Amino acid sequence: MDLRSGHAFWLVRNGILNAFPALDGDVRCDVVVVGGGITGALVGYHIAEAGVSTVVLDRRDIGWGSTSASTALLQYEIDTPLVELQERFGTETAQRCYHSCRDAIYKLRELTQRLDDHCGFSLKPSLFMAKRASDTAFMKREFAARKEAGFEIDWWSAREVKRHMKFQRPCALYSRDGAQVDAFRLTHRLLEKAQADFGLRIFDRTEVMEYKVRGRQVLVKTNRDCTIRAKHIIFATGYEFQQLSDRKLVKLHSTFAFVSEPLTAGRHLWHDNCLLWEKADPYLYIRTTDDHRVLIGGEDEDFRDPEKRDAMIAKKSATLKRKFRHLFPHIPLEPAFCWAGTFGETEDGLAYIGQIPEFPHASFALGFGGNGITYSVLAAEILRDQFLGKTNAYGDLYRFDRHGGNARAHKR
């Protein structure tokens, strides 16, 4: 599947960070990870760090799938609001889901601090804005639920939004636990370090054609007729999971983004340069970058095919620019790079992490939705612990066999 198109900023900015070889011979390992995006990098890093012989494969160049199109806003807010998640799973489970994502942000900070390159990681507060006055009742319920769950969050009235942000919105929730990063760069730096320090082996342009179970072994065949013998296989293939399984776990969407030219006033554009996102459909989100640009995304459409998605890039970018100027008419914004990507959301807004019966000796790290990177951190720790026979505090939350009602994910 073609997961992104246009001129994804992270590819242009970073260029070729590493050249990994294609697999051209048979290998043995304990765990083979299929997928060389941010999820596969995190999973491979954590498992190799634990002393497990690990191989990471990707059919593209490393990080060239949906990771290269990610806007990489890191938030504990799941696509499903806390009040709706509580209705579906109960208060305790819903709060644990939200707390797991907050924990993942700070675990990722610790991880980037071990790297020579911090990959643009920066803690950021976030502002969740009501679009219409009719949203106020929902926002008050969500505020109360998060307060009860112990999150640091402030209620901003219309007057406070105007005072802090200079634009008008009926109300907003100001959260202190958020962050941003360059996911493409982080993918490469994690793999570099795991290769150098833990013996991780990485092969790109290597496609898995099939895998079979022989006794306690997994046999993986590649496009060059090479065989990988492993004890376990982990699929970190994201939205391409639909090509592996008939399970209908995710609904695909096309999303659009652009990044501006660098701004001379980029060090302080608005209050704390916080992450901005809006309760709207189609939604809007805004962040800054560490080289003083503004990155804007949203305007989702149901995914049909890459050609129709790509034909909308110019129109959608113009719409995003118009929405930004409505908020910040004083900021002279000019798009530098525009792109589109494909992402998915689950019915309940949660990731799928773990095993399913029809795939023996296999695990899945499927961080669907707006929390993709925080889910990837959780998947890396959960799957590492499962392979080592340990219990993970959050492992039960993201199982494939979880149950609940019919709450619908809130797109952001």
From TrEMBL:
SUPFAM superfamilies referenced in this protein's UniProt entry, alphabetically: FAD/NAD(P)-binding domain
Domain FAD dependent oxidoreductase intervals: 30-385
Domain of life the protein comes from: Bacteria
Pfam families the UniProt entry points to: DAO (PF01266)
One GO CC term, this protein: cytoplasm
InterPro entries: FAD-dep_OxRdtase, FAD/NAD-bd_sf
Gene3D superfamilies: D-Amino Acid Oxidase, subunit A, domain 2, FAD/NAD(P)-binding domain
Protein name per UniProt: Glycine/D-amino acid oxidase-like deaminating enzyme
Organism expressing this protein natively: Roseimicrobium gellanilyticum
